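User: My collaborator sent over this chain with a note saying "see what the structure looks like." That's all I know about it. Can you take a look?
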Amino acid sequence: MSQIDPTIAQLLLDLDASRERVSELLHSVYGNQDWQPNPKEWSFRYIAAHMAQVELDAVLARAQAVANNENPHYSYYDNTGWDFSHFDLQESLEAWATHRAKLINLVRGLTAEQFTHTGAHDHFGRLTIQRILEIALEHDGEHESQLRNSLIPASQKMRIES
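Assistant: Without extra context I'll predict from the sequence alone. Here is the result:
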């Protein structure tokens, strides 16, 4: 293991913090995990399950493949249309935390050479470990914004329905 690049170290800290922020937002609505801002948007339950599944299938798996020098090629990952209705929000957040911890531990254990390995993505282009982490952080941020924007209307609607 080599000393980790400061940019990578900061990304890992940011990823841990962003997961914590999104998890806190979702924990706050546990009692209403099936609420949706509108029928075309995901419920809180679905968002939590989506975050766990993306972390496992798109982030951790891709980081492992790139680190292993498999030179993988990926298309856009999309789990729209998946049925997450049987997933409990809390269990999904726990799974996401586990997958994120595995990612962080994986990256912390990589050699300098492994950070030079690449893969390819139809949308994102050349994938490095750093780019995979950046994409994950962007994804977290998109859902954090989505949640913050829907929580004010959600709390208003929940008061009306009570």
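A starting point for your reply to your collaborator: The CA atoms of residues 48 and 92 lie 6 Å apart.
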